[in-house]
Amino acid sequence: MDGSGWLAERFEENRTHLRSVAYRMLGSPSEAEDAVQEAWLKVSRANAGGVENLGGWLTTVVARVCLDMLRSRKSRREDPLDARAPEPAAGDRAGIDPERDALQAESVGLAMLVVLERLAPAERVAFVLHDMFDLPFDEIAPILGRSPEAARQLASRARRRVRSGDPVPDTAFTRRREVIEAYIAAARGGDFEALLAVLDPDIVMRADSAAVQMGAPQEVRGPAAVFDFFKTRSQGAKLALVDGVPGAAWAQGGRPRVVFGFTIAGGKIVAIDLIADPARLGELDVEILETT
What we know:
Layout: H1 3-26, H2 29-44, H3 54-75, E1 78-82, H4 98-107, H5 110-117, H6 121-132, H7 137-144, H8 148-164, H9 170-189, H10 192-196, E2 199-207, H11 209-213, E3 219-221, H12 223-233, E4 238-242, E5 245-252, E6 255-265, E7 268-275, H13 278-281, E8 286-288
Parallel strand pairs: 2-7
Antiparallel strand pairs: 1-6, 2-3, 4-5, 4-8, 5-6, 6-7
């Protein structure tokens, strides 16, 4: 097997772990997948022949990609609320305990993600890599462009903010709910112009494997495609609280079957994730707000 084939195999072996790292930094399954793909493009062009700890190196590459995405998000004033179910974390790699990863995945719910979203990008990266994945500060420091001591201080500051459990500001909660309500009303009413007012031009909607089996496309892009899907297939979706955060859900027999997770930036919906996997739905506290 040539070097590129070997590297591709090693990357795939680490993909679940890398997606788990990216998810904790970004809080969105779709963005996490984008980050992992971007990391692969960078890795595939690099010379990994002399890398001793390949898993650690891949983690740092993904972390740098996520840091850039977080900084870009801050510059766009992205809404920090994003209803997401925890992603599984497992893998087979040196120095990483798959069982510990799985326990970490179960412990990181929406409430934690909401708090993490309120951290500065460097704080979040330092905290996630050290406290969740045990990366030493001398490896975190180059990612942040800081000294190991500065990285330690960033993680410590983030840890204090996480432990304080600051509540989600009422203004952010209200703004998010208003955007989602406007989206549902426009789609139901067939008002494409109103929908354009709340959808980002580059919006992407992705469905998990369970949602695909129910008839949803794996991915659609652009306001027209998202509008068409919601108008023809998701008329039953209703405003809901997902782990206390505004979102949407489609229920059958009084039980949520599909949860709609929204990523909102600058008052626009930039991504929608359809979550239908029963195991993931079982981890969520879903309260339907609409009664009709």
